[in-house]
Amino acid sequence: MATPAMPHWPIHLRAGGTSLLIDRADETGVPIIVYWGEDLGDPGRENLAAQARAAIPQPVTGSTDAAVRLTAMPMEADGWPGSPGLAGHRDGRDWSPRLILTEATATAGTARFTLGDEAAGLAVRLEYGLDQAGLLHARASVTNTGERPYLLDRLAVTLPLDPAASEILTTTGRHLRERQPQREPLTVGAHVRESRRGRPGFDATGLYCAGRPGFGFRDGRVWAIHLSWSGNGTIGAERLPGGLRALHAAELLSPGEITLGAGQEYSTPTVLAAWGDGLDAVAARFHRSLRARAGHPSSQRPVTLNTWEAVYFAQDLDALTQLADRAAAIGVERFVLDDGWFLGRRDDTSSLGDWVVDPQLWPDGLTPLIDHVKGLGLQFGLWVEPEMISPRSELARAHPEWILHTGTGLPPSARNQQVLDLSNPAAFTAIHGALDALLRRYPIDYLKWDHNRDLLQPGGADGRAATHDVVTALYRLLDRLRADHRGLEIESCASGGGRIDAGILERTDRVWTSDCIDPIERATIQRYTGLLVPGELMGAHIGADVAHSTGRATSLTMRAVIALLGHLGVEWDIRTLTPSEERELAGWIRLHKELRPLIRTGTTVNADLDDPALFLRGVVSPDRSEAAYSYAVLASTQAYPPESIRLPGLDDDAVYELEWLTGPDDGPGLGPLPWLDGDHRILGRQLRLGGVRPPVLNPGNAALIRVTAA
Ligand code: DGJ
């Protein structure tokens, strides 16, 4: 079949150091991405055509007569034997469409294609855009052009994976230990990470990375994708005989979750994808792109005090005003009242859904506390968990039908709570109304928006799977509150890092990285959360000397150094501090304030150190005139004294001065360390290649290395 007038093929998208070269299949015209990666420059039309031709494989025995190619919407009708781009049916029919290109448009950085199978009653749209960071934004949509309903099972964005990519890195985890890295070889087969929790989950992989074996933070070419979605998802790599490698990502749909009536359309969440030499280069594209989003916080991130690990549910005006006084004295700028302020909430067994101030705890409402906090010059933040409902609540008594369930009784209970059906317009209106009333009544600058359980059996009013609808309702709710309450900031929390994705980040200003604030655990959690999230959006708190979540004691230096390069907070009953602890904490907060312009705009760098006990992660200013590195000894080191550490990311030709900032806790080193005495000036290249010998520190201790161009 002839294809209509089109842009010149192959289509070459270029931006931010990335190229995407798109050819089309001979018979159907379906787009084929023949190359995605490092910028090809401007080779000219003929050379681009030559590259597209060079990518055509030879037909082989035991396969289809025409060589199988990976298209942008791979389907069985093209001979594709792997995971289909589109799956669904109409009463068991129309399940294997043969898509033909009907329209294509392209600009320098975007391309859009429409494909269709008239007989099957389906039209598909594919959209690609490269932003200035070189990050690819891709989306697929399907429309039911037939008359009878079409049940959609899967619609995926599929990208080709470079033949060099044969090692996969993803993250997994659990409550209090999110984003732990795991590696595996990309052998033949599908390697898929799924989320069926109604949110990405603690074990979700932030980025799905595949690259040259052994790729690290600083080198090794790597490609990564991310599903910009806060619900169920599937993201994976696939390798098939025949030299076919792909990355794909899709919303994971439950049976019957999406039924398209005549003319109805479904779109995938946006899939984000980047390449880089080393993970830091990949992360830099995500960070740059997130920083360019509308509504990215433009002010320096206020140092926060969160009341949770200070008082838990013991909310008392006197205690909280004292806490606010101490917080203001040490330089805190935002006071966040955590869980426990609303109707009857004394522990986690009741009251979610009853978003009115508890009259017994707060006879005069929150005004006395807020006035006090604001009088100290601090912003005021309030904890909420709007998507949840406690069976023991007035809301559940009035509207038991608003609890998500499938009709077989309540889903398994988790943290004594159930999930509200926010896709029900009446429930949405009630929750929006309650939050809106709070925001109108009180001068609230910030909401800590929590989400403390997985969605299990999330059936809506008619019992159908409703995850997709509650996630889109959540997005609508956040968008509406932000539009109506200009300047309101929102933190996304899900028992810590259970819901960290670019979809929620589009609408929030900070993520609560983990409920674990033990710095030994946090070092890894923050490092891998940082593949997606830049430092200024990553909540990082200094907690008590003995971490509540692990029982491990660490020095204040260690806790501060690990928290310092994020969005800093304090989560500790600071009424109990000794004067010297208070002075030391205030000093770290002062230092953070000096560093935060750097944190907000800088490039995150990580050192690939051989000894797993050593940790080095930093941020370098865009002009590379300054940098700060958190250096920590997480366990006993192999070498004693430790080997040199190299400082990545600096300007090779600039001369730098180094400052080694640590606390009063000494390491066991005996004699002097020459470079630490007096002025030490050294080239960026020398710091990158030779590095410096760090002083000996005890396990569980740390230092901040500040580097400034001389
Ligand atoms: C889980 C959060 O991650 C904590 O920080 C705290 O807000 C509690 N929920 C409150 O219930």
In short:
The protein has 710 residues and is an alpha+beta fold. Helices cover 20% and strands 29% of the residues.
Can you walk through the features of this model?
- By secondary structure, this protein is of the alpha+beta class.
- Helices cover about 20% and strands about 30% of the residues.
- The strands form six sheets. Strands 5, 6, 7, 8, 10, 11, 13, 14, 18 and 19 form a ten-stranded antiparallel sheet that branches.
- Helix 11 (about 555-565) packs parallel to helix 12 (about 580-600).
- The longest helix has 23 residues, at about 580-600.
- It binds (2R,3S,4R,5S)-2-(hydroxymethyl)piperidine-3,4,5-triol (DGJ).
Provide the fold topology.
Blueprint: E1 11-15, E2 18-24, E3 31-38, H1 45-54, E4 86-89, E5 100-106, E6 110-117, E7 122-130, E8 136-144, E9 150-160, E10 167-174, E11 177-185, E12 189-195, E13 208-211, E14 221-227, E15 233-240, E16 244-251, E17 258-260, E18 265-267, E19 271-277, H2 279-291, E20 304-306, H3 308-311, H4 317-330, E21 334-337, H5 367-375, E22 379-384, E23 388-389, H6 394-398, E24 418-419, H7 425-441, E25 446-449, H8 467-484, E26 489-492, H9 502-505, E27 510-512, H10 519-529, E28 538-542, H11 556-563, E29 567-570, H12 579-601, E30 603-606, E31 614-620, E32 626-633, E33 655-661, E34 681-683, H13 684-689, E35 701-709
Parallel strand pairs: 20-21, 20-29, 21-22, 22-25, 25-26, 26-27, 27-28, 28-29
Antiparallel strand pairs: 1-2, 2-3, 4-9, 5-6, 6-7, 7-8, 8-18, 8-19, 9-16, 9-17, 10-11, 10-13, 12-15, 13-14, 14-19, 15-16, 23-24, 30-31, 31-32, 32-35, 33-34, 33-35
Helix pairs in contact: 4-5, 10-11, 11-12
Residues 308, 338-339, 383, 450, 452, 493, 495-496, 512, 515 line the site of (2R,3S,4R,5S)-2-(hydroxymethyl)piperidine-3,4,5-triol (DGJ).
